[in-house]
Specification:
globular; eight-stranded mixed beta sheet; 3 domains; 308 residues; 7 helices; four-stranded mixed beta sheet; L,D-transpeptidase catalytic domain-like
Length: 308
């Protein structure tokens, strides 16, 4: 046990030295990577804008607007939708998990490279997911849900049957996989409600699509370090001097002037002359939660779209 605790401490100490700007600087991280892309998706039986958005990490309203649809529109079988789910990678870690709350994305790094990324469901506005560093302290397949006292009280207030334990079953909200964090009471787990991904509906835990948690569960081990951050404004500089900006809503009301923050962000990295400020201000105003090109000048290119 002592050896295990020392190992966890070492993992956290290593994580402390990762994902920071250059020594001597007190700046947000300037990313050099994007995930996702632009592609076409054919609606399948039972699909909805909410479900598609949850699977790919796009707001339903944004998905609807990009396809000239009403957010409440019912999809037809085979209907083709344009999906844009490009996101900026907030930081690059040597090893470990990074979760950005406003972005609702989880990034898993192995040996300095991004191994996988997933949209996630997070805590409600009145039950927020905490920020901070953590270590995965246990992993369980087919977990028993020991219902916290606070959730039992909520069940009682809402007139529901109060449960203290939920065994492995189709009604267990944890799904099939559970990974406990060193942040007491919180974990990363699956779900029996896939459409709730990319929403703020949990009691603070991090929820993944069943297919994604199955993959992540195999990729990480006990002792894997991680961090949960709150970065609603993200900036990336890619090869070819293309600048991308991604802005999210201040879901947990932490405050801040996003326009001023973005302007300082760009200026402090010496990118002012490379940015189209009109585009940048529109991205801040819309808060679509997607990476948008705000370069003043960039070479044209054809977009490759795939049918999924």
């Amino acid at each position: 046990m002592i050896r295990f605790l020392l190992s966890l401490r070492l993992s956290l100490l290593v994580f402390l030295n990762l994902g920071s700007p250059t020594a001597g600087q007190d700046l947000p991280w300037l990313s050099s990577g994007l995930v996702g892309g632009e592609f076409e998706y054919k609606a399948q039986r039972g699909d909805s804008l909410t479900g598609i958005g949850a699977r790919f990490g796009v707001e339903r309203s944004v998905l609807a607007r990009n396809n000239n649809l009403d957010p409440a529109a019912r999809l037809k079988l085979g209907q083709v939708l344009l999906v844009d789910n490009r996101h900026i990678v907030p930081q690059t870690l040597k090893d470990g998990i990074l979760i950005n709350l406003p972005q609702r994305m989880l990034f898993n790094f192995v040996q300095g490279k991004l191994a996988s990324h997933y949209p996630v469901g997070l805590g409600r506005r009145d039950w927020p997911t905490p920020t901070g560093r953590f270590v995965i302290i246990s992993k369980e397949e087919n977990p028993i849900w020991d219902v916290p006292k606070s959730i039992q009280e909520e069940m009682r207030r809402e007139g529901k049957v109060v449960k203290t334990k939920v065994p492995p079953c189709p009604e267990n909200p944890l799904g099939i996989y559970w990974m406990a964090l060193s942040i007491v009471g919180y974990g990363i787990h699956g779900t029996i409600a896939p459409a709730s991904i990319y929403q703020f509906q949990t009691h603070g835990c991090v929820r993944l699509h069943p297919d994604d948690i199955s993959e992540l569960f195999r990729r990480v081990s006990i002792g894997t370090p991680g961090g949960i951050v709150y970065e609603p404004v993200l900036l990336a500089k890619l090869d070819g001097d293309r600048i991308y900006l991604e802005v999210h809503n201040d879901v947990y009301r932490k405050g801040g002037n996003f326009l001023k923050n973005m302007q300082n962000f760009v200026s402090n990295y010496g990118l002012s002359s490379a940015v189209d400020w009109r585009k940048a201000e529109q991205v801040v105003h819309k808060k679509e939660g997607l990476a948008r090109d705000i370069s003043k000048k960039f070479p044209g290119s054809q977009k490759v779209r795939k049918v999924k």
